[in-house]
Specification:
Layout lengths: L10 H8 L3 H4 L3 H9 L8 E5 L7 H6 L3 E6 L2 H13 L5 E5 L13 E7 L8 H11 E11 L7 H11 L17 H10 L7 E12 L3 H11 L1 H12 L3 H15 L7 E13 L1
Parallel strand pairs: 1-2, 1-4, 2-3, 4-5
Antiparallel strand pairs: 5-7, 6-7
Helix pairs in contact: 1-10, 7-10, 7-11, 9-10, 9-11, 10-11
Bound molecules: S-adenosylmethionine (SAM).
S-adenosylmethionine (SAM) binds next to helix 1.
Length: 277
Amino acid sequence: MSTKSQLATNPNQALWEKGDFTRIASTMRESGDALIDSLDISGGVDVLDLGSGDGTTAVPAAQRGANVLGVDIAGNLVEAGNTRAAGLGLSNLRFQQGDATNLAELDDDSFDLVVSIFGAMFAPRPFDVAKEVVRVTRPGGRIVMGNWIPNDPTLVAQILKISSSYSPPPPDGFVSPMTWGVESEVVERFTAAGVPDGQISFERDTYTFNYPGTPSEFLGEFRAYYGPTMNAYDAAAKNGREDDLHSELDTLFNAHNDNGDGTTSISASFLRVTVTT
Ligand SMILES: C[S@@+](CC[C@H](N)C(=O)[O-])C[C@H]1O[C@@H](n2cnc3c(N)ncnc32)[C@H](O)[C@@H]1O
């Protein structure tokens, strides 16, 4: 199911294949590693990384001995993930293309742990996503999601907020990915999938982006390679507002940088969701 010819028919796939998310992912590796560390993964457990990209969390999970499958809607990221796995000699890690809203290729009760860090939140039809994630998780297993939080003052929520103010209104029925950052919405989705609400917990967590250039150069990576930002620049350009968008984002990136030496380190908050099945 993995050809670029599907681009025109699946806008979600087109959005993520448009750029090259590996350019952003490479700035998130330390946080991916720390997140996996916090999950105490033991050797031999079966892990699904959903919306895996090129393996920011899938790679460290495999390095700790888990059998890991990364599933992502973007063919270019699946390919990049498999190239990384081969380069690292990780025979217990593979990536395949798939859609979080319908994981028909995966059997019920297949995984001890499903991880989705800023991944499944971007799929449409969140109730289908919750149902599928619960279906493929074994009884007694865990689901861990990382979701950006609407109106949060930190970097990514602000990039998405600023970008949407330069973009055309979404189509009728569109459910914002940011609603995955609202606890009551998450509870509604997982309880509809059959999970008692006492088995759903939340905490605030942080991811840090580390980039070897300036914040303005880091913004350049988003502008050139991050699908949602690329689309926002395209939409702004159509209205002659590209410079305004750029200036708002440039101010944002520079204001959030913690380094003073010409490099970039920006931390962003997210909602960490843990579901036990
Ligand atoms: C912000 S990136 C995060 C990637 C990775 N989890 C990481 O932390 O580096 C979002 C990822 O979700 C994937 N994605 C978006 N919609 C999806 C869907 N419906 N099914 C599977 N993956 C999806 C994108 O292709 C992209 O790789």
